[in-house]
Amino acid sequence: AITFLEGNLPRTMLDELNAHVDEQRDNLEDFSGNLVGQIKQHERSQQLSLDRTNSIVKGLVNLFGSAGRAFLKSNQIPTEGGADAFYKAPIDCFSMWTVHSYEGDYNPLHDHDVSYGERCMAFSVILYCKVPPQILELGKSTNLYHNGGATDGCTYFTWGTNTFSDHLQLKPKQDRYVV
Fold first, then answer.
1. Percentages of the chain per state (helix, strand, coil), in multiples of 5
2. Distance between CA atoms of 71 and 4, rounded to whole angstroms?
3. Cα-flanking dihedrals φ and ψ of residue 178, to 5°?
4. pLDDT for 107-145, tens place per residue?
5. Are strands 175-178 and 155-158 parallel, antiparallel or unpaired?
6. What is the dihedral of CA 149, 155, 161, 167, to 10 degrees?
7. Better pLDDT: 67 or 51
8. Quick one: pLDDT band at residue 63, thresholds 50, 70, 90?
9. Stretch 99-112: mean pLDDT
10. 68 and 120 in contact (C-beta within 8 Å)?
């Protein structure tokens, strides 16, 4: 199974992050060589590495670390030291990047695996900073059949094999779209 932790960034923090990215965009390092995204349809399409030593980005990393610890505690993931160990869980950020995508850009189905040699759990986090109006208007209509493009621009998560008849067999959903 898979569990999602959802939340909203405080508006002031989101505005500060957006301002930082907008100001530094031309100075940020191209990260596309490390990613599978096909983000190249527009002259401003980019995937850029964020400097995790920057104070604004550090604040975001710290917030995600706190959220990760809360996630571990709420899901009662077994750990040495019991529930209190979650408050001290060593959570690190391996990489962080921005995706500036436009009409026609896309990310193919992929995963964010962690080296099995590291023997550690991993989180992947998506933060939507600026969403165009045509995506916001999609609402929750994510029916794959005869959808007329209703899922274009959505993020698709899958963690199993789905068939149309699964609901008739009382099998839980193994996928999810996020607008």
1. 30, 10, 60
2. 9
3. -120, 125
4. 888 877 766 677 777 788 889 999 888 777 776 555 555
5. antiparallel
6. -70
7. 51
8. very high
9. 86
10. no
